[in-house]
Amino acid sequence: MNNKTIIVTGAAGFIGANLVKRLLADVPTAKIIGIDSVNDYYDVRLKEYRLDELSRNDSFTFIKGNIADKELIEAVFEKYRPDVVVNLAAQAGVRYSITNPDAYIESNLVGFFNILEACRNYPVEHLVYASSSSVYGTNKKVPYSTDDKVDNPVSLYAATKKSNELMAHAYSKLYNIPSTGLRFFTVYGPAGRPDMAYFGFTNKLVNGETIKIFNFGNCKRDFTFVDDIVEGVVRVMQGAPEKKNGEDGLPVPPYAVYNIGNNQPENLLDFVQILSEELVRAGVLPGDYDFESHKELVPMQPGDVPITFADTDALERDYGFKPSTSLRDGLRKFAEWYKEFYM
Questions:
Q1: Which residue intervals of 122-254 are DSSP H helices?
Q2: Which residues does the UniProt record annotate as the domain NAD-dependent epimerase/dehydratase (predicted)?
Q3: Do residues 47 and 77 make contact, with C-beta atoms less than 8 angstroms apart?
Q4: Which CATH architecture has domain 5-186+224-263+308-324?
Q5: Fewer Cβ in 10 A, N or C end of the chain?
Q6: Per residue in 303-331, pLDDT tens?
């Protein structure tokens, strides 16, 4: 990626900011263009904190704007002519999609369409984009494989992410645009998203509130530390699907989809136990904190699924990478960051 121009959308977001930080450190000759609307879906101070760190580097250019703004995206692509595009901008969250569907159509469908159109008009070497483990819906077979049929989403968020994969496939087929979709599994870590369970639980416990553990604690999640996600993205960026023609002489879509997950689902009750121990260790909570009185087991929420579990064999086969950060190590880093940032 030396001397390449790379556009990262969602650059103020959790994964986006960590990716840009990694690229700036690893590829000093690359020019990184970050785009983000910096909306108030969650605490803007977190986004500003991430951006402040990135903006100190001269190789990084930040553009505040919405990918749903077609004219803006066209102008950015025309000016910078990117070699690689990583689309991480999206309206995230399963539960929020039930009450605010418009935001998902705007960002995840209209916005992604604008990115695809720009990649068609200003051809790129590789488009990498975020999909989600949510596309698997209530898939009964585990671990989830990218070969599984995923036609039964249980939330609008999941439906938009599956739509992204279909749209990318169409553009790869029609215009020979190399594209790779990445299905992320429950990403966590320092300076993460406050709407994620580990962050929300911490805020509530600090405030002496009760945390709700869904499906009476019988949920399992394939928690993936953000550094592992970024490592996977960086490797995939450098390995675009090959352009080639089929027997009919027409292009075979240079298209791929991979899971990036820890390949090790954790029970929610075990997760809460480890989180509580690390919060005490970091000094976020006192050693005598009564966790039992602050836990409530409740039924499953609409749009939720009982388990997420990534089959990462394809990622390991094609890119020699398998996420490996343990939940305790990852939550320890989060707890230490939380203490420093909020206390």
A1: 156-175, 197-206, 226-237
A2: 6-247
A3: no
A4: 3-Layer(aba) Sandwich (3.40)
A5: C
A6: 777 788 999 999 999 999 999 999 999 99
